[in-house]
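Late entry, pyridoxal-5'-phosphate complex.
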Amino acid sequence: MKEKQIPYKIYLEESELPKAWYNLRADMKNKPAPLLNPGTMKPMSAEELEQVFCKELVAQELDETTPFIPIPTDIRDFYKTYRPAPLVRAYYLEKLLGTPAKIYYKFEGNNTSGSHKLNSAIAQAYYAKNQGLKGVTTETGAGQWGTALSMACAFLGLDCKVFMVKVSYEQKPFRREVMRTFGASVTPSPSMETNVGRAINEQFPGTTGSLGCAISEAVEVATSNDGYRYVLGSVLNQVLLHQSIIGLETKAAMDKYNITPDIIIGCAGGGSNLGGLIAPFMGEKLRGEADYRIIAVEPASCPSFTRGVYEYDFCDTGKVCPLAKMYTLGSSFIPSANHAGGLRFHGMSPILSQLYHDGYMEAVSVEQTSVFAAAEQFARIEGILPAPESSHAIKVAIDEALKCKETGEEKTILFGLTGTGYFDLVAYQKYNDGVMTDTIPTDEELEKYVANLPRPTKTM
Ligand SMILES: *Cc1c(COP(=O)(O)O)cnc(C)c1O
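Prediction complete; structure with ligand written out below:
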């Protein structure tokens, strides 16, 4: 077949937008381990999960056999307001690097939330609405998830209550205003509105909060108010399912132009964008139909894959959520205060953890000053101000492209550009002022957190 001229941006037609999400678990021989009830250490039943999460989402969370789950028409129609997302050939970056490699990125920053998180937010809000609920609660740290959920709830007329880590609430007032503009109520956490918030405020007066504490508050409000459920923006199987839209679109666009990636790279916080991007490619790999090199990139200051342990652990610092078997640094681990680049979650998606454990993917960690250097290089030539999270993937894509320059190999590199960095300018300022530093935890520090795992030594 004659090679088609590859445009700078490949847009799929609206009609080519996937009609079903792809459930990677269906093709995994070793399924991810189930969530456990921390009280009984038994797998969480659908009934138990439905007290916290929406019914249909619980079904998706537990479904490890159905390969394709149809995207409801209403969600697909909403997707059309900002999807298909472009697949971009980074011609200018290739030229700048002088590499024979071909570099592509899937850009998920083309919506007002500025990240891929809207893909799952709209799905979760839709199922909540369908169940006849009044609203949903959640936590947000940096604010992208809270923004995405606020947008989805505004669209569907659902109440949205966001507990925002107090330090971000104060430091990122503009994120907060975006959420309020979309009608969400945003409460700094710890608040005086919940038992757990009041207790924490009493115990630690003046605390600026943590993600774990905000999760505990959001869960309390969801479970103690009729018509409310709690929703989460990453880590869970259902979130990776919704995010498979990223990979399905990418694969469709690549197939259209006979492009096959050799290397697929994504940043990894809780694993949702990476799990979504690689889904159909990993499916081929699992079924033995094709092979790809898949690389997860994480911050050196929060290295769950590269330096964590594969054990059951709490998903939240507050220890109210179920236990997940995942690569973890320990639920009380908090990255050093000078870490500005996002991806601060202590654990990792159970699906990706299992795949990594089984050798289907690699992981590398990178230091934040090198991440911002890559972000700057990319911004100046490709014209997009990348989110610091996304820039972890940019950094490793550039590294791989430079290796190709040395060896002369014409590899095709694909990476996920998950979002834009307009609300991360304090971090950019630090980098531009030359005051950004790198802090890598020592082995001793890491051992301290891992020592507190619920069942530290036994493999389950
Ligand atoms: C939340 C976020 C991430 C990290 O989350 P994952 O679940 O690992 O994808 C990456 N990039 C952006 C822009 C984000 O908002």
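Residues 115, 117, 144, 234, 267-273, 343, 387, 389-390, 418-419 surround pyridoxal-5'-phosphate (CB under 6 Å). Will revisit in the morning.
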